[in-house]
Design a protein that fits this description.
single chain; 5 helices
Length: about 240
């Protein structure tokens, strides 16, 4: 057999083997896909920290308010001439609150100050008596929120330190434990809240607190008195 014919037959045979092997190679490649690398899961502790940081906490709130104390105009109050404008003008008060509120309960601490939160002018025979006092209340309260939602009416009660500095009585300073109770409405808009409060601050004042001798107090019929100082205030708060 000539060499050229043998070479031709060899080439044809080799080509036939290559063509026949191609389907087998393709099937092997399909059966063994390349390995996929999965991302490493984040550590469980780190995931928990991320969730904690991202969790919204809008129950805490700081607020500021302005208002009036009815005790700032005791004269008109006792003479049935009480008016809202007189209260806001003569017994103006300022303050702030810090609290934590969840339906149906909230807790808060408050501080209120008035430079003229207690005032009285009276005439006894030929003597005119003027009595004025600077007022400070530092109190802690519990709120009972009546309904959930953006508009929240509430009632409140609590106690704390009530301080009166009597300007016209040689600067006598009285600091006693007192109580307060009242109610109001909070209106929540996103992270801002608008608020109206009405409260009665109750303080028991005795003759000894005013440096008045007990025998003299008994002679003039001066007994322990529960001083009521009603507050009307308007405030704005910011939740965080």
């Amino acid at each position: 057999m000539p060499k050229s014919r043998v070479l031709t037959l060899s080439i044809v045979f080799f080509s036939a083997l290559v063509i026949a092997a191609q389907p087998v190679l393709a099937q092997e490649q399909t059966a063994t896909p390349p390995a996929q690398t999965l991302p490493d899961p984040a550590p469980q502790q780190q995931q928990g920290q991320n969730l904690a940081v991202g969790a919204p906490t809008n129950n805490a709130e700081v607020s500021f308010f302005i208002g009036g104390l009815a005790g700032g105009d005791l004269t008109s109050l006792l003479s049935d001439g009480f008016s809202l404008s007189n209260t806001l003008e003569s017994g103006r008060t300022y303050g702030g609150r810090v609290g934590y509120y969840t339906f149906p309960l909230g807790v808060e601490g408050s501080f209120a100050y008035s430079n003229s939160g207690l005032g009285f002018t009276g005439r006894f025979e030929d003597v005119t008596l003027s009595l004025g006092a600077r007022v400070m209340y530092a109190e802690a309260n519990v709120l009972l929120i009546l309904i959930p939602g953006p508009v929240q009416p509430f009632i409140t009660g609590g106690g704390g330190l009530h301080s009166y500095e009597f300007i016209d009585l040689a600067g006598i300073h009285v600091s006693k434990w007192g109580w307060n109770f009242g109610g109001g409405v909070k209106i929540n808009v996103k992270r801002v809240s608008l608020r109206v409060d009405v409260r009665d601050h109750l303080t028991s004042i005795a003759a000894a607190d005013l440096n008045i001798d007990q025998m003299l107090a008994d002679a003039f019929g001066l007994t322990d008195q529960n001083l009521h100082n009603a507050e009307l205030s308007f405030g704005v708060g910011f939740r965080f």
